[in-house]
Input
Amino acid sequence: MSSGTDLSRLEDDVLTEVAGAGDLAALDAVRVSAIGKKGRISELMAQLGKLPAEERKAFGAAVNALKTKVSDALDARKATLETAALSARLANERADVTLPVRAGAEVLGRIHPVSQVLDECIEIFADLGFEVAEGPDIETDDLNFTKLNIPAEHPARQEHDTFYFNPKPDGSRLLLRTHTSPVQIRTMQNKTPPIRIIAPGRVYRCDSDQTHTPMFHQIEGLVIDEKTHMGHLKWVLEEFAKAFFEVDNVTMRFRASHFPFTEPSMEVDIDASAIGKPGQWLEILGCGMVHPNVLANCGLNPEKYQGFAFGMGLDRITMLKYGLPDLRAFFSADLRWLRHYGFSLLDQPTLGGGLSS
Ligand code: DAH
Output
C-alpha cells in the first residue's frame, strides 16, 4: 500500500507532466491519467477501504490534498495554454488593413455590350414614354406570321429561314420567333390603345456568317392610338438616333421598302458621319405605319386606330456604336473578349449622366 513517500513521488511525477504538457490536448491526457475515473490518484482513493481504520483518515486526507493540488495545477496550466493559444491565433489572423482591397464581382464582372446597349435603348425610349413589353422565344406560326399579314404561301416565310419544331397532331407547328414583331400582336390583343411599347428580345434564323448568327437580338417598337402619323415616327426615330449615338444631329434617310405588316414601309439609314465614318449610309432599322389588316387581326378597328411600328437589330447598332467588328464574337463566351469590350457594372446608362461615360 502506498506510503507518504509514494504519494510525494506521484505528486512530483504528475506535476512534472502538467508542467510539460505543451498543448491543451496533452494536458487533458495528463488530467485523465491522474484524476480521471481510472486515473492514478483516483485509484488510490478506491483503495482506501482496504486500509486499517487508524491509517484511513490520514491517508484519505493526504490523497485528497494531492488531488486538489493536481487539480489546481491543471487549471493553472490550462489557463496558461489557452492564453498562449489565443495569442498565437491573434498573431496569425492579424489583418493588415493597409493592404489594397481585393477586387470583388462588382469590379471584375463585365456587362455584355448587348446588355449595355439594351439598357441604353430602354433609357431613351422610357424617356419618350414607351413601356417595355415581352413575348416568348417559342412562338406560334399564327403570331409570328399569319396575324402579321404574312399568310401561309407568302414568300416572306421563306425569307425568314425559320427554325420549326416538329408538327403537332393537328398539323400546327411551333417555331423559334424570327423577329420581335409577334410581340406587337400580343400587345394589341391584350391592351386597348393608346399603346406605346418597345419589345426587346432574342430572335432566331437559320443563318451564319460574319454579320449573321442563328440567334440575335431585335428591338421592336409600336405606337397605336387615333392620331399617330408618319411625322411622329420620323421624330421618334431621330430623337432616338441622336440620343443613342450621343450627337447633336443625325441625318437620316427613309427609303421606300416593303414589309407585309406595314403600309407604307421604309428602311432607315443614318449618315455615318455622325459616328465618324463620313460618306457612308448605314441601315439601322425597318419601319412603317401598321397595316390595317394587322390592326383588324388583333381586334382593333382600323377606321378608328392607327400608328407606327419599327424593328431594329440590337447587335447591329451595338457594333456600329462601339466599333465591334465580328458579330460571332458576341456569342462565343470568350472571357477575354468580354473583359475587353464589356462594361463596368457601375456604368449604368442614364440620359442625365450620359449613356456611355
Ligand atoms: N420584323 C422585321 C424583320 O425582322 C423588322 C421590322 C420592319 C419590324 C418593319 C417592324 C417594322 O415593326 O414596322 O425584318
